[in-house]
Amino acid sequence: PPARAGHPMAYDPLRGKTVLYGGIPIGGGALGDTWEWDGVNWTQVFTNTQPGPRRSHPMVWHPLRGTVVAWGGFGGGVDLNDLWEYDGVDWRPITTANAPTGRRASEMAYDPNTTGLVLFSGYQQGADTWLFDGLDWRQVVPATIPTPRYDHTMTTDPVRNRVVMFGGTLASETWEWDGIDWLR
Predict the structure, then answer these.
(1) Closest CA to 80 of 134, 35, 21
(2) CA-CA-CA-CA torsion sign (112, 114, 115, 117)
(3) Strand partners, 132
(4) Which residues make Cβ contacts (< 8 Å) with residue 115, sequence separation at least 6?
């Protein structure tokens, strides 16, 4: 792929490929291209539909859906809150009754406790936590809430059944999500 920043990647274990979508090219703006890494080579994938140019959006493998799921980001001059999935052939929108407000620089990870995805905070957003169960979003209000942040990272720890979150702008803390609450 051409040089870029603000692009997510997610591993698709069914196909054994890492998927990259969008990002910020040199000079600014946003890209709307799909690339796959097979461990040796990058290949650009041309799909019939796509989420559209965007950057700073989270993307993660959703085991129950068997697809890579991308949410929100920044594109077309606005913060987005749309949800898309990629099955290795094409991108499809996922329609939900509820959704978090549009945002960029948020993060999302698979939660082995709820078998869904957990999304936390984002650029100019409060410290909100949302769960996607594969069909719809719902906001949860845990007893303990990390401070608002953006440009943080989150990943799944399958051995301990936790989502681990680190950092973000002006934050050097480690937090864990246990499916019910955030733990520092």
Answers:
(1) 21
(2) negative
(3) 117, 137
(4) 63, 64, 133, 134
Distance of CA 133 to the CA centre of its chain: 14
| Per-residue model confidence as pLDDT tens digits over 70-99 | 999 999 999 999 999 999 999 999 999 999
Cα 59 from Cα 115, distance rounded (Å): 16
CA-based nearest residue to 73, from 127, 118, 22, 134:
22
CA distance 112 to 118: 10
First and final CA of the chain: distance in angstroms? 37
Helices (H) and strands (E) in the chain, counts: 0, 17
Six-digit token string for 26: 């040199």
pTM assigned to the model: 0.96
Q: Tell me the average pLDDT across 121-128.
A: 94
Would residue 115 be called left, alpha or beta, if left means φ above 0 and alpha means ψ between -120 and 50 degrees?
Answer: left
